Structures are given as structure tokens and as C-alpha cells.
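As a warm-up, study this chain.
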Amino acid sequence: MPAGVALARESERVTLRLATISIAVALLLGWFAILLARRARERIVLTIGRAGGASTARIGRLLGIVGVLFATTAALAVGFWGLLTLFAG
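Now compare it with the structure written out below.
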């Protein structure tokens, strides 16, 4: 997300609207990380802990939640920026 916004600032070809694609990608990857962590925890339960990786699943879930929260915050920021520029005139 920060790279998309920075690119929108420095490049004339990339606008902030196009940079919102990075927000959507971050949101999808965050949900995907949460889903994979859930599957890993289910596999750990099925194998009675022999599969290992409980801490990795926990960290993956935490990073997925952080990614979803950052993407939501960025989406709200860009949405309010859009409203402010729409009604500024």
C-alpha cells in the first residue's frame, strides 16, 4: 500500500485512484493469510499436534489481521479523500 501511494505521488501516469488497487490486493492477501492460518490450525488439531507449526499459524493469523486492518484503514482514508475532493469545489 505505501508503495502504491508513493508511486502515485512521484509518477504522472499513476493516480491515487489506480493506487487503490494495492489496497484491494492487501485486503485479499490478508483474508487469504487468515484462511490459511485457520486451515493450519485445523490440521494441527486433526494430527493432535504432531504436524507442528502452531506458532507459525498463530503468527500468520496475526499478520493477516494486521493486513486487513491496514487495508481497511487505507480504504477509509482514500474514500474520505475522494469525498473531500469531490465536495471541495
